Amino acid sequence: MKPWHPDSIKQANATFCSMRITVDVKPKSRKDSVEVIEEGHYMVRVRAPASKGKANVAVTKLLKKYLGKPVYIISGHTSSRKIFIVEE
User: Fold this and answer.
1) Who has the most CB within 10 Å: 15, 64, 69, 85?
2) Domain total of the chain
3) No. of H helices and E strands in the chain?
4) pLDDT at 30
5) Is 20 part of a structural domain of the chain?
6) Residue 45 sits in a domain of what CATH number?
7) CA 19 to the chain's CA centroid
8) Distance between the two ends of the chain, CA-based, in angstroms?
């Protein structure tokens, strides 16, 4: 299963100990970065384009590396503002 695939919603909803975060995404940026805007709200810049889910995959991988925990998109698959579940 791909991390951006809608089936990840089922997996995320089955997680009992988790938190939600809001992520604003800027695709086609000069470099990959994560910026904390406020608690539970992040700005993520990725070099990947926003086509065919490439930016979603890049954001998911970058957040997983930054937070050190598995993350899943639950809302905003085609939007620049996304909601992620972070497993505890």
Assistant:
1) 85
2) 1
3) 2, 5
4) 97
5) yes
6) 3.30.1200.10
7) 13
8) 20
